[in-house]
Amino acid sequence: IPRGANETPGPAHRRYYRGSITDNTQEPLFTEGIRANSVRYSPDGQWLAFLHPGENGPSQVWVMKSTGGEMMPLTSEPGGISYFRWHPGGRGIACLTKDAPTDREQELKKRGYGFIFFEENLKKNRLILLRFDADWNQTEQVNVEIDGHPWDFEFDPEGTRIAASVSPENLVDQRYMFRKIFLIQVASGEITQASHNEGKLGNYVFS
């Protein structure tokens, strides 16, 4: 949905709908004003997880029943969440976060400074694994140590491995030209390089 002429600068708004493939009916998935994105069904189809900034904070992973209802935050990372995937087991997720803004960065933002130091103040993504109980209380967090910058990832169907695209540094040219696929063993954290591609890397999925 395009932004209005009197709105603050920013990207277009995105609106999600829940649709039926049997009678072609549809209804809004979220109430007005909810700025959600990256909506994904849980493996059992009972829940929806999505990214949402809450009260003007950084985006976090939220969850609600797939039929609608109350939204619950699953994460509260100071640096926010940029990417996530459900664990195939259902009661866990993996996500990418980064360090929170420094006091100086927060002070400059508060004072209205919107400048960007091109490729000088970029922060490295960190991959974390989270598990939850039946009431969505977090029971475990594992920080996966990766030598490089992970950009995205996918679970295998059993949830025992993660394939992640990683480049040595968090730079635009590195993302375009130097990403390689690495396999991460979820149980042990062991990491091995899976691809030796030269140049650009496209999408990738497990069979």
Primary descriptors:
single chain, 207 residues, mainly beta, 4-stranded antiparallel β-sheet, 2 helices, 14 strands, 7% helix
SSE pattern, N- to C-terminal: EEEEEEEEHEEEEHEE
* Side-by-side strand order of the widest sheet: 3-4-5-6
Spans of 5+ residues with little confidence (pLDDT < 50)? Answer: none
Number of strands: 14
SSE class = mainly beta
* Overall 3D form: globular
Global mean pLDDT: 91
Radius of gyration: 19 Å
Largest sheet: 4 strands, antiparallel
Give the helix level as a range of percent: under 10%
How far the N terminus sits from the C terminus, by CA atoms, comes to 35 Å
**So how many helices?**
2
Q: Strand fraction band? A: 35-45%
Q: What is this structure's SSE topology?
A:
Blueprint (H helix, E strand, L loop, with lengths): L16 E3 L6 E3 L8 E5 L5 E6 L7 E6 L6 E2 L7 E6 L5 E6 L5 H8 L15 E7 L5 E7 L4 E7 L5 E7 L4 H6 L2 E6 L5 E3 L14
Antiparallel strand pairs: 1-2, 3-4, 4-5, 5-6, 7-8, 8-9, 9-10, 11-12, 12-13, 13-14
